[in-house]
Amino acid sequence: MIKQPVLVELQYFVKSVSHLYKGVPLKDTGALVKSALHLLEDLPSTRDAVFDYFTLVFNNAVKIYMLSAEKNLPDPSVDDEAVQEIHEALERLVTGGPAAWCPLISSWCLKLLGDVCKKHCRRRPPDIRGACNLWLGCSAIRYLLSLSALCFEKLTEREMDECIQELLTIYGTHTPYFDWVVARLGGCFPKKVISSMLTMGVNRFTGDFDQPSESEVEILSYLGLAHETDLRCALKATMERDMAGKQAVPYLLLLAKASETIAQSLVEVFLELHDENRLQTLKIQPKNWPPNIGLPYVLHTVAGMLLKVKKHATEVTLILAKMSTQHGWCQELLETMFVELETLVLEKHTAPLLEDIIRDGSRDALWRGCASDTPFLQQVAVRLILLASFKSNSVFHQSIVYLLSTNDSTVTATSKPHLNALVRLLGGPPGAPDAPKVRPALETAFEKILLAPHKRTECWNVLHNLVELLKLERAAALGSPQRKVNCIGVVHELLDRVLKIWEAFMCQHRLDDQEPGTDLANGNAPNGHFKRIKSDQSGTAEPMETDAKGVVSLNDLIHETVRLIDCLDIGKTVTIGTAESLKLSQLLVKYFFHCLQLPSGAPVSGVTVSETLEESLNRVYGLLSRHCGHRKAARTAALRELLEGALFMYGALFGSQTESEAYSFGKPDDLLIKLNQRQGIALNASRATVLHAGVIGQGPKIPSKGAIGPASEMQNRLLNAIVACCQDVHYDHQATIDGFSYVSLLLVELVSPDVMYNGLPWPEEEFTRVTMERDLQIRRTFRQSPILWSILGLVACYRPSLCYCSVLLRALCASALHQWRSKTAETMNGQKTDLMYVTTKLLELMALAQLLPPPLSYLHIVLEYFDGPEIAYVLKECVWNYMKDHVPSPVLFVCDPHGFHWRDPLTSRPPPQYTNPLRNTMQKKLTKVGHLYHQMFVGPELRNPTNSSNGNQQHQLAPSGHGFMGGNGEQPVAAKAGPSGNIGTLPPTGPGGNVMIID
């Protein structure tokens, strides 16, 4: 039996609700609410009536709220207490009551929300966010939503599916007023709600309309923004369920066309399927699509979607480019996209696709695409970068730097995709009136090398790609796009950076090879004299070569930098500054000596470019010739560096030796007091001065070994470098003579110990006592650096350049003359001693330079037949006196129409007082020198009885193989001018032909 209090409550509830429906206002609304709640708890059979009353209360509260909201009045909060009590009671029932209440209450809430929203919204609501802001201002609506969400947490899996189905059913009858409720409550189980909505949309999609309803788009977009992962999973599952692609694919594409959020998720689904290699399993068949959705329409739709997507659109574009080799529609799709994108760019609009590139979101993928060997992929990547360059020059510059820094070793030698892309990029965006400048890109590439020289592979790639690029530009026809870019001119402008890079590599290589304890890195010697430095490690440093794996070494970087310099027209079209010119001269000479230290015959570099040492040296010769031929300051600097390096820094390469190497001191040094006691008391008491030419107790210093002298090959390399510096590019022989004249002056500066007595005239022989010490020092320098003979021999061929070396010739002659007068001057078993060698070489040089006229020019031939006193006599009377009276000056030489300087032997024949001593000496040894005597004296006198003979008469000076330069077409003679007798191929020195130097 029903309890009496429940019946009383029921009677009160029925009576009060009846009056309420008749329009009679209630006196106590709170009492009626409490009665209804008691009935709901104690008498569940009355729940329909109670819920109807609750619906009436909530409807009344919402109605008053909407009237106030439309008039912009404050919320009067009518029945807030009743609504709150109902909400709290139902919440207690859900949380503490039986589980059966949850489906009932959630169903009531959803139906009530649908009815209230549709009934009290007189016009179509704004978007979902606006609808949420409008409805959530009402406390009754908020209570219903929170109560629904609370019920959802208590539902089972089956009950949840039923609840979602009911939610979507209400949505189908109350849209668009119920959209915001679906979007708001769908967040409780987003994956299921999104999947259900997609399934519902695919099932009812027939293709008769262009796009899904706005409600679907808004709800899915709203849920997708907060639950991206669930949206992607739902989209992926929808595509997999519809394997034939009859309805799902076109429906999803139309959804993506209407919503950027769905489009972004669909792009990510595409990437997931591509990463999983499952794109081929999706059999998309456009023939099964609705008739009004054809392939062209879909391609335009997808192209527009890619332009709107903010992330991953570039990756999808590149994937489509890769797929274009198998699917023709991919190329059509991409071309459609590029047409739209170029239209936007040229109209100065932008697109999220370009913004993604500008923000550096997908540049790496684009750069990899540019370096790909797939032509269409490379084309797509380059076009995207060029279009992005309209909006940001940094994209253009960074792309060039990346392509310069890359080099795919897997591709063939003939296929260079990164260079192809680089050439296209350098041309700039098509149709752009102002293409971005190339200089910032190359400047950044050079700075990258300077900041990270330890990344040798990247550094080598930049240099090598630039070399290839400049070669292509030089080979291109005039007016071609490559010529318009003018990369050669840009590198010219950045020559200072290139020189810094080159210098950094050279310094690093020198530091790597330098032995501990030396201070050659800054060019400083312990004694402070730069020109006296003897580099012990110059000829022994082993260069770091490229190993079998292709690892880049410093040698490779140095050689590649020189190749880059060689690609420029140094001095031809662009004039560089003085500082850069001097720096380039210095680095060229350092590189020359660097090459000389490499093993002969071995490749100097082996990453991808393999060349021999001779090829590298020929490149140096060409660079020196072009650079020094246009700038006198450059020639001056290069010649100084060459001679200083050959004599001091890298003397070991040319057989030079130091003082410590020439002499050996086997015994230890004694105390100074012991050395003084050996001289005796009498010597100390006298006021005489004694000069010891040796070590006290050991006798005079005798060299234990002599300098080996330069090898013929090494000697020729140095002389070729000097010739390259001195030769004029316009074949002006006078300019070449000026260059070798500077070589003469520079030799005097480097070899002569001081600046005194360095003039051209030869003084009286007595005066040599004053200059004895400096003469011996010069003689010692020639003994320690035999390459000096070869250099002087080269200078002698370019008359009258050797005149400026008069002080060196004078010192050698004076020291030899004094030594021949000494008792120790003799020949051993008919073999030449060092003294005989020096004397012969001196006379050869003077004869080659025409400082000694015939017959004195034959002295070096007959000298070996004389003994010591006779040699001293001839040197004094014939050579020294003649040079004293005939100053070796350039004015003695005449210039012929071809620009060559020479002395006519018919007009410069020495007077008898200079030849008679030689004649008399030879007459005493006619049995040995008779044939020479006839050539030197008898023959010329028979042909020319007087000294005033006609100068046009042909005059045979010497037999074949020996002689002196004749006049008016006479053939030159062969004369020895260096230690090895070969100083390389020399240019013409007279009107008659070329000088050939033999032993």
From TrEMBL:
Domain Integrator complex subunit 5 N-terminal: residue ranges: 5-206
A GO cellular component annotation in the UniProt record: integrator complex
Residue ranges constituting the Integrator complex subunit 5 C-terminal domain according to the UniProt record: 215-927
Biased composition range(s): Polar residues: 944-957
Chain intervals for the UniProt region annotation (Disordered): 517-543, 942-999
GO biological process: snRNA 3'-end processing
InterPro entries linked: INTS5, INTS5_C, INTS5_N
Protein name, as recorded: Integrator complex subunit 5 C-terminal domain-containing protein
Protein species of origin: Anopheles farauti
